[in-house]
Amino acid sequence: MLRLKIQDEPIVASLLMTKKATAYWLSMSERTLQAFTHPRGDLHCVRLPGGGLRYRRSTVEAWAAAREAAVEE
Length: 73
Hints:
Elements: E1 3-6, E2 9-12, E3 16-17, H1 19-26, H2 30-36, E4 46-47, E5 53-56, H3 57-72
Antiparallel strand pairs: 1-2, 3-5, 4-5
Helix pairs in contact: 1-2
C-alpha cells in the first residue's frame, strides 16, 4: 500500500494496479481475475491507451465487499 505524508497526516493514495498486482492482492490467479473482469464479470477496470488494463483500488475494494456481503446473506 502506498502511503504519502502531507503535512504530517498519512493518506492512502488511490492506485491503479496491474492485473498481476490485483490478482496477488485478492489471492487469486490472473486467469480467475480475468473471468471476474467486465464484460465477463462485474469487476470494472481502466483500459489504458496502449491496451493495458489497470484496476482502481477503490473499485476492487467495493467489488470485494459486495461479493462478501452476498455470501453472508
